Amino acid sequence: MKALYIALGLGAIYFIFQSFVAGNAVKTEKQKYRTVLKDDALEIRYYPSATMATIYSSATNYKSVASSGFGKLARFIFGGNKENESIAMTAPVRMNMSEKGAEMSFVMPTKYNESNLPRPNDESIRIHQSAPQYVAVIAFGGYANDEKITTYKNKILQILAERKITVIGDYTFLGYNAPYQMIARTNEIAIPIEWKE
To answer: What is the pTM (predicted TM-score) of this model?
Structure first.
């Protein structure tokens, strides 16, 4: 009986912790966008320009990019910069992957731009403005992996082809949650498209 009470207690602590983590994820500043169209299959969004911190990698898959890139960018925002300033984490973490290599980007909080953002100590991190764009987005839950990313990328490409929407660039994986958040996880695949309003 004592083991049951311990198990129930640990389960309650775990549930409270995960609820706290999920609640904090909701409060995290998200990259700004405007929804142009939304239905059961996909969402069309307009993303204005944003300030990004980006690293490049020779990695060609999600697992390699996630492990090699996240640490460098995390060190930068946790004080690894010329001003020793902590920069708030935002969402999503953006990853572009291809056979030629990959890049990972953190979107900087809106209070920063290229002129007032602390400069990274790591010279391999590039600070830049993203180009404004229209994208088609499809979402999926749980933990991301290369198989899921490929499945949902192919699914949205098929939907866009059926709707005769022109794709104008490679896909981006958008991850919204910390690795230790196990419930209410959100992932998205975004593909740049031609779109007229």
So the answer is: 0.84
